[in-house]
Amino acid sequence: MRLSRTLLPFALALLLGPLLAGCATLGGANYVSLEEEWQLGQQLEADINRQVRLVDDATLQRYVEQVGQQIVRETEMANLPWRFHVIADDEINAFNIPGGVVYVNTGLLAQSGSASEFVGALSHEIAHGVARHGTRRLSQAYEANLLAAVVLGGNPGLVEQIAAQVVAQGAFASFSRADEREADALAVQYMAGAGWDPEGLARLLERLVSQGGGIALFSTHPAPQERAANVRALSRGHTGRDDDGQFASVRSRAARY
Ligand code: ZN
User: Fold this and answer.
1) Residue 230 phi/psi, 5° resolution?
2) Shortest CA distance to 105 belongs to which of 123, 122, 124, 89?
């Protein structure tokens, strides 16, 4: 049972997530191999795809994939098979699950002020995946609670439970401040590398502050204002495109769902 070892930490995170939320999460080791992470990602993806309403729209799918791959090419995981999905949901949200899978809501496409704002959110989620924040958090749970993990490892249907939780919460995990900061910093780097204006991410954060949206996406600490300021500081000296000539039509198309 190759999977059972992979699933142990996930079982723990499912049950102990709230307890762990206050723990320090800096510099933890990752006990889930990249191969196991990708294998688990495929199973979670299959379950999540059954539970959400995926958009059957080749134009939207192609756009998100095209921009996603532009960003992935700037990462150290450019050689891995990343996958992108569009969910028909008005809420401004995007999330990453382990194994290089990124979900984007039509609400994020429809309500981003420009292409670079959308690419900012997409880059931030890709960065969580590259930094392996999800499996790193689970590894911390595994380390601290070995016995419980062994017991829970025999629980069938666990992947389905985790998938249901991801769908319900609109996120795989609530990351630490350090994780969010790292994902923002990496996102700036990737966007600049791909020729996008990295301040797009700051503009999206500021828009969400003023509009009060993006609860699931940006409600984590540190506060969006502080994150926007950090992103602006990191973006200094970088210039890039704010638009790609396609986004306006993509946005109005996304607003139909
Ligand atoms: Zn994040």
Assistant:
1) -60, -45
2) 89
